[in-house]
Amino acid sequence: MSKKLGSQTITLAKPVNILSAASTVGPKEGEGPLAKYFDVVLTDILAGENSWELAEAKIAKDTFTMAVSKSNLDLTTIDYILSGDLLNQSISTTFGIKDLNIPFYGLFGACSTMGEGMSLGSMLIDGGFANYILAGASSHFCAAEKQFRFPLELGTQRPPTSSWTVTGQGSVVLSLDGEGPYIKQITTGKIVDMGIKDPNNMGAAMAPAAVDTMIAHFKDTGKNPDYYDLIITGDLGYVGKELVVRLMKENGYNLETNYTDCGIEIFDKNTQDTHAGGSGCGCSATTFCGYYYPKLKSKELNKILFIPTGALMSPTSTKQKQSIPAIAQAVVIESFF
Amino acid sequence: MSKKLGSQTITLAKPVNILSAASTVGPKEGEGPLAKYFDVVLTDILAGENSWELAEAKIAKDTFTMAVSKSNLDLTTIDYILSGDLLNQSISTTFGIKDLNIPFYGLFGACSTMGEGMSLGSMLIDGGFANYILAGASSHFCAAEKQFRFPLELGTQRPPTSSWTVTGQGSVVLSLDGEGPYIKQITTGKIVDMGIKDPNNMGAAMAPAAVDTMIAHFKDTGKNPDYYDLIITGDLGYVGKELVVRLMKENGYNLETNYTDCGIEIFDKNTQDTHAGGSGCGCSATTFCGYYYPKLKSKELNKILFIPTGALMSPTSTKQKQSIPAIAQAVVIESFF
User: Fold this and answer.
1) Residue A317 and residue B107: Cβ atoms within 8 Å?
2) ipTM over 0.90 threshold
3) How far apart are CA B309 and CA B328, in angstroms?
4) What's the pTM value of the predicted model, to 2 decimals?
């Protein structure tokens, strides 16, 4: 039986195996420092489709299919897909998977979606409801900018705190079978709203949520940050990461040696002009699937705390002068059983 | 241990109790045939707020809180909230619950969300991950019209196939404790897309998904429709219901005596001018919580198959001339253990 620790953390009765991970990214991510780690780097940001939204749907479909192939499984063996994205009514997910013929639960956790899917997926497997689950998340720079900020054609200037939405999708297959890496614990996030209202400063809006989930995790489990080889948030970028380190220090936790953020890893600060770093559902999903999953598989990393972070606002809430609530979903992944 | 039947159905190891149900609706629903069954009928569609979106958030917060009070529980005892809505980036849910301080997983299943939340919630309880879960879904006529169709101020004529988005929220508390009614089985939907492109004919778009999930349910379980006192779809309205009856008949299932749809029950066809009936996440959520839950509690109904239905399009996909994929999530609820 799984065990509830404290108020937000679950220790799975039996660690859930991440059988495979697949990633597809766009051209800009393919010019970044992690380029060689992704399975597919698109040369065409439209992926051969007629719109950015359909491009994201195609990337989602292809990456889910690739993850299943890498596990030497067939799509018909997958019990559930758990996934989502940033677009209104999650259309890149639903249009992407609509022909895959797999039972589906749609998720919305903004950029925390990969953590949400891995968490719920692990629980459904640990609870005996499924043998194989596909979890994933996607985003697309052009579709997201158009929807959340300004038409790209305007060439609007971006402030230094703004981040760059990653184009890409990351998918994992979860199962009780396999030889790791393993999902062992889950700390579910609560919504945190510190009153930040600037949609061009998502890092500052999301950092307190990441801190809230991390502190809950350490309190629930009795661990300290140095238990982990690496603590990896989703898409806080430079601004958010610095805030996390400072807020955690104020709470008595030292993150200075083993903490990073996918939004910092995926782009080169000096040459790629992304300002605060990468963001979007695809940021943590592709960076985990392409870069960190193989390091866990090869045991270069043995213990990570993976914390995708999501900003839960919409253009409507911003226009109505509302703040930006945020959430962070933490997953403990280890290379050994 | 729970048991997987066929490819889409789970029989829970131990039936999950619906400890309480709460509902809030808007003024129009308060003039309909179910008015007296809802806990709260708003006289002000803004619920005292400054925008329709904030009104929906307030309704969500108040109804979740009411469901917890009805169970004689405290908000701090709730392990997870599983919920969602129709607005872009689910802002009525996230702004509604952000101060409740409860671990949260956001769902997007369009108008099938109540079924999705009850399904995932039951599995998390049956799997031993939670003692108490809040599941709910909301919609707001004005916020939905503005977002999906036209500004209300335009006074646009509505075609006869169009449905009327319900203003309201329905919430349930799920637990292993209690004396029923009980969730016993779950049939998870697959996305079905029959090529319908008219966003003013959601009933036709969603009917094939309802049929797909129903047929999967009957095949997986070996039951026939006459096993149930009532089969209740979410928001197909008159157009969709007729299609479901016809399509089911073509597949050898007779639904003529014990099948209805929440979109038909919630408004009066002759006096309320809603055309095809009610729709929206709140349609099935409020009708179940206000009207059917007490009938199960009193054993006036003993066995129902509840199937919230969702249309998975967005205004962007419609403008890009895409079809409307749909999904239906089925839950078996019985008055006895």
Assistant:
1) no
2) yes
3) 4
4) 0.98
